[in-house]
């Protein structure tokens, strides 16, 4: 294990932020800490980095008890949401910082920094200052800076949170590819479930300072342990007292065995998919919705006012709401 | 019409309060040409006063720079009980009259006071001597460096310092390589303001120095003493010199004031 967090509890004043959290991160993996804001995921990352001390519990990094070690001795690379670029230093000097602190020979520093700048596609901007870079470039510089000291683990705190949607998507794909090249154990914090599913091998869902579920993206999406995780990982809707993914519902103009009758309220065409909003009988006006392909919607001729029957598809994951 | 009225008022106000007195001093100083001016400033007493001023202001600036950086870091990077009280206390010298400061210092460090008596028994005289003048000057110019640094440190945030730590920098390395370059302009601004205030201090120093001619006489005290003794050329020459230094520091602060 690259990182072992055991029974960590942390409060700020009287507010508990982490409650008895235990997480294992495998060597070479790319793990996402996913959860709503205020759920404790950033604090957990900062506890791993040594930027916060846990009240109770231990942190092991590469088998060494790091709980009492200062961040400077932990051999972690940390990337901040707002880049934390050294404003008075050039891109080159920013990336060289950790190596200069370690008093490496000048030639070695130069070689290593240029190599990293190529890796993050900033080799042409080495002499610029951070203020002359775009947000995405600054974050890539921060990543190169963290990688320069060859950390045992790389920690990223909402790394794409301050960037606009387009750049964010690009950097996501790029981070995944970078990880495949560099293979450093990486943990990143995000509140965006799509980002976590797309980039990570393992997702740790954190909410209210507790680990709700750990698993591969497919596991947490398809087999959420509770309605909270199911809601957080993707779209859900309610049919017949069950929580179901809207793409896991059969819709039919004729009655189905075990089906629930409903009336179509609206049909919204969103490009290739169609969102059918329905009023389910006996559900006190709580609306449900079904996601169907455009082809199916056209074939069934779905229109507002039609009466249809809904039924979760055979393999669909359902969570009974009444049990909670 | 109102616009012109306001302008005239501002000009007249400045003319009688600032421009006229300063011009008159300069005119009186140089009325006899440059020679008397140079002569008045190079008299042994004047030179000694210069020297005392430089020593006192120099120590005060050094002390307040070190103290100012320390307290600013304390106020912006740490939380502790009594922080707000400390923050309020920093501004106290702005509110208290320098004369009161001087008297208070005599109560603590005077020959017949407990602390002063103890120091005196070790052969260390504070009041009527350089240490007392330095302490008085440090006190009155204390808030300047702190007040210049705190907003800049707050704006800078601590993320860059944390990043430096995770990259292997010790506290000292992160301060020297990251924090100090980040606050250098503000620090320069605060130090120059502190220097200007220290050079011009009169009230507190007048009380604790005992105004001993050729011993504890600073330039401001020299001006006052010469004027009282009807040696107007010397008084005006020294006053002009002080004014010139003030103008110079004013220009420096304009240069150092953070642009963005």
Automatic annotation (TrEMBL), chain A:
The keyword tRNA processing does not apply. Keywords: ATP-binding, Cell membrane, Membrane, Nucleotide-binding, Sulfate transport, Translocase, Transport. The keyword ATP-binding applies. InterPro entries: AAA+_ATPase, ABC_SmlMolc_Importer, ABC_transporter-like_ATP-bd, ABC_transporter-like_CS, Mo/tungstate-bd_C_term_dom, P-loop_NTPase, Sulph_transpt1, TOBE-like. Residues 3-233 form the ABC transporter domain. Pfam families: ABC_tran (PF00005), TOBE_3 (PF12857). GO terms for cellular component: ATP-binding cassette (ABC) transporter complex. Its EC number is 7.6.2.9. It comes from the Bacteria. GO terms for molecular function: ABC-type quaternary ammonium compound transporting activity; ABC-type sulfate transporter activity; ATP binding; ATP hydrolysis activity. It is an enzyme of class 7 (translocase). This is ABC-type quaternary amine transporter. The lineage of its organism: Bacteria, Bacillati, Actinomycetota, Actinomycetes, Streptosporangiales.
UniProtKB/TrEMBL annotation, chain B:
It is found in: Membrane. NCBIfam families: 3a0106s02. One of its GO terms (cellular component) is plasma membrane. This is Sulfate ABC transporter permease subunit. Residues 50-257 form the ABC transmembrane type-1 domain. The complex is composed of two ATP-binding proteins (CysA), two transmembrane proteins (CysT and CysW) and a solute-binding protein (CysP). Keywords: Membrane, Sulfate transport, Transmembrane, Transmembrane helix, Transport. Coiled coil: none annotated. Part of the ABC transporter complex CysAWTP (TC 3.A.1.6.1) involved in sulfate/thiosulfate import. Probably responsible for the translocation of the substrate across the membrane. One of its GO terms (molecular function) is ABC-type sulfate transporter activity. The chain crosses the membrane at residues 12-30, 50-76, 88-110, 122-146, 186-213, 233-252. The lineage of its organism: Bacteria, Bacillati, Actinomycetota, Actinomycetes, Streptosporangiales. Gene3D superfamilies: MetI-like. PANTHER family: SULFATE TRANSPORT SYSTEM PERMEASE PROTEIN, SULFATE TRANSPORT SYSTEM PERMEASE PROTEIN CYSW. It is a multi-pass membrane protein. The keyword Transmembrane helix applies.
């Amino acid at each position: 294990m690259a990182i072992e967090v055991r029974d960590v509890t942390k409060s700020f004043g009287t507010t508990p932020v982490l409650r008895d959290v235990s997480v294992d991160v495998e060597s070479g993996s790319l793990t996402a800490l996913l959860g709503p804001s205020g759920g404790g995921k950033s604090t957990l990352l900062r506890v791993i980095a040594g930027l916060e001390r846990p009240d109770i519990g231990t942190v092991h990094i590469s088998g060494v008890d790091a709980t009492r070690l200062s961040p400077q001795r932990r051999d972690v690379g940390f990337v901040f949401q707002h880049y934390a670029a050294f404003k008075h230093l050039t891109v080159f000097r920013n990336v060289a910082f950790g190596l200069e602190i370690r008093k490496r020979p000048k030639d070695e520093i130069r070689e290593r920094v240029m190599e990293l700048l190529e890796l993050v596609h900033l080799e042409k901007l080495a002499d610029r200052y951070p203020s002359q870079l775009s947000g995405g470039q600054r974050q890539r510089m921060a990543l190169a800076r963290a990688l320069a000291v060859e950390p045992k683990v790389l920690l990223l705190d909402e790394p794409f949170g301050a960037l606009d949607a387009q750049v964010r998507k690009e950097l996501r794909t790029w981070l995944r590819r970078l990880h495949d090249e560099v293979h450093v154990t990486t943990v990143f914090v995000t509140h965006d479930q799509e980002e976590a599913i797309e980039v990570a091998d393992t997702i740790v869902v954190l909410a209210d300072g507790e680990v709700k579920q750990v698993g591969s993206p497919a596991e947490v999406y398809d087999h959420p342990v509770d309605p909270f995780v199911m809601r957080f990982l993707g779209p859900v809707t309610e049919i017949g007292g069950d929580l179901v993914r809207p793409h896991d519902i059969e819709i039919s103009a004729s009655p189905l065995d075990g089906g629930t009758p409903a009336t179509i309220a609206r049909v919204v065409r969103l490009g290739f998919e169609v969102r059918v909003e329905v009023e389910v009988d006996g559900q006190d006006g709580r609306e449900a919705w079904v996601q169907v392909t455009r082809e199916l919607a056209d074939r069934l001729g779905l229109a507002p006012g039609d009466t249809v029957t809904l039924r979760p598809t055979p393999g669909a994951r359902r969570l009974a709401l009444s049990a909670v | 019409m109102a616009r012109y009225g306001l302008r005239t008022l501002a000009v007249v106000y400045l003319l009688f309060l600032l421009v006229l007195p300063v011009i008159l001093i300069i005119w009186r100083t140089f009325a006899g040409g440059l020679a008397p001016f140079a002569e008045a400033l190079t008299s042994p007493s004047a030179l000694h006063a210069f020297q005392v001023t430089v020593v006192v202001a120099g120590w005060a600036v050094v002390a307040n720079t070190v103290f100012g950086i320390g307290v600013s870091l304390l106020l912006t990077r740490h939380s502790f009980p009594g922080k707000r009280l400390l923050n309020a206390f920093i501004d106290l010298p702005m509110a208290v009259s320098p004369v009161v400061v001087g008297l208070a210092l005599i109560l603590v460090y005077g020959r017949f006071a407990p602390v002063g008596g103890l120091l005196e028994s070790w052969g260390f005289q504070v009041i009527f001597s350089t240490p007392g003048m330095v302490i008085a000057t440090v006190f009155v110019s204390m808030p300047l460096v702190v007040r210049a640094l705190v907003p800049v440190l707050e704006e800078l945030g601590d993320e860059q310092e944390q990043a430096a730590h995770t990259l292997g920098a010790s506290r000292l390395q992160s301060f020297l390589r990251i924090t100090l370059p980040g606050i250098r302009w503000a620090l320069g601004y605060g130090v120059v303001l502190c220097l200007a205030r220290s050079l011009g201090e009169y009230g507190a120093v007048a009380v604790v120095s005992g105004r001993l001619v050729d011993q504890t006489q600073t330039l401001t005290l020299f001006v006052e003493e010469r004027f009282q003794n009807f040696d107007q050329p010397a008084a005006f020459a020294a006053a002009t010199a002080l004014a010139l230094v003030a103008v110079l520091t004013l220009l420096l602060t304009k240069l150092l004031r953070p642009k963005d």
